[in-house]
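Summary of Year 1 activities. Much of the first year was spent building the evaluation harness for sequence design. The harness presents a backbone, in tokenized form, and records the residue chosen at every position. We chose the following record to illustrate the format because it has been used consistently in internal testing since the harness was completed.
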């Protein structure tokens, strides 16, 4: 019976070995791929969120296939490659659906990596179909050095109204214009064969604005894009269809091809007409129209009309003055007083002092009688 006593422990020993399972060696129960966005072992934790992957290179080191690094996730608006995959912010696939990246896109001629994917301008696949990157359409960025009494400013020459330019050849097929989604430098674009949106009408990225127009927002309507006419104060103030006034200084755009800082201006419709106090367009009848301080053409309605007549002090500014007047410095009285408003259409100052319509910038639409 002693042999039975020896056999029993041996049986238990070897039998117990058969019951031992080395879970560490069973790869089927581990997260096997740590950057595929799949919960391989079906334990409800994926990739770097699974402890099986915490020491994997995908979760600890730069990896171009790292699309789901939860240890160092990509933050989509800080200009940093947080997950070390070679892409940052909106250029990282992790950020495709992030609100910070909605509407982000590469601008194809400004020398910047706008969408943060490491590729710039025409070298970015986003721009492969852009007109300016297809080399189908030539540049028409001829410019003019315009002299105002404040000094020299540079304007493009051929982008207004019908966009006629000798660089564009047949004007029945091409026009010279600016498409902000492609370039802030004028190019010769084909005339639209579909219906175009007229001046001052609402627009979006898929809208075709007519010649001489751009689809953009302004400080006046920051949430409502419109097809607004391009213009140039003092040079080409005409707004398409004679609507609106050239008063919005849209942007100074640096053209690295001609090495010039170009002023781009837009037309918009002012709220009222300060040159016609009796019928300015303001309501109610007690409201009054006054031009903005820069006098380039915008005007707004003030709830109450001023009562100070021309020649008297106006410590509260323009709105102290009766409609049709503005508050400016008087050399004779050494103080600010109300002056008659004058402009391109009504420059009559013959019965007032020296009879001069004073403009601090000769491009201004309005001036004041001195």
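For this record, the design step produced the sequence shown next.
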């Amino acid at each position: 019976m002693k042999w039975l006593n020896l056999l029993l422990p041996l049986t238990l020993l070897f039998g117990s070995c058969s019951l031992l399972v080395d879970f560490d060696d069973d790869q089927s129960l581990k997260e096997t791929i740590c950057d595929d966005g799949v919960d391989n072992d079906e334990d409800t934790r994926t990739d770097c969120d699974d402890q099986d992957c915490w020491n994997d290179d995908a979760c600890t080191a730069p990896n171009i296939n790292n699309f789901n690094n939860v240890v160092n996730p990509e933050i989509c608006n800080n200009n940093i490659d947080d997950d070390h995959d070679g892409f940052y912010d909106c250029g990282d696939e992790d950020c495709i659906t992030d609100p910070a990246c909605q509407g982000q896109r590469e601008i194809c001629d400004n020398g910047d990596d706008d969408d943060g994917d490491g590729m710039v301008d025409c070298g970015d696949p986003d721009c492969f179909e852009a007109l300016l990157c297809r080399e189908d359409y030539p540049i028409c960025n001829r410019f003019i050095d315009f002299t105002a009494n404040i000094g020299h400013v540079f304007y493009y020459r051929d982008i207004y109204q019908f966009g006629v330019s000798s660089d564009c050849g047949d004007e029945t097929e091409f026009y010279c214009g600016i498409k902000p989604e492609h370039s802030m430098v004028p190019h010769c674009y084909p005339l639209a064969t579909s219906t175009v949106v007229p001046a001052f009408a609402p627009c979006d990225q898929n809208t075709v604005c007519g010649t001489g127009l751009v689809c953009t927002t302004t400080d006046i309507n920051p949430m409502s894009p419109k097809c607004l006419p391009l213009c140039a104060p003092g040079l080409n103030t005409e707004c398409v269809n004679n609507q609106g006034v050239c008063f919005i200084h849209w942007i100074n755009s640096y053209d690295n091809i001609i090495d010039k800082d170009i002023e781009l201006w837009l037309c918009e419709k002012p709220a009222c007409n300060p040159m016609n106090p009796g019928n300015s367009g303001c309501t109610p009848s007690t409201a009054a129209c006054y031009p903005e301080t820069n006098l380039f053409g915008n005007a707004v309605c003030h709830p109450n009309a001023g009562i100070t007549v021309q020649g008297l002090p106006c410590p509260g500014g323009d709105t102290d003055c009766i409609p049709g007047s503005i508050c400016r410095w008087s050399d004779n009285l050494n103080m600010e007083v109300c002056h008659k408003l004058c402009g391109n259409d009504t420059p009559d100052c013959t019965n007032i002092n020296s009879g001069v319509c004073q403009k601090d910038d000769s491009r201004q639409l309005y001036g004041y009688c001195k």
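Confidence is low (pLDDT under 50) at residues 1-26, 63-67. Quantitative recovery figures across the full test set are reported in Table 2.
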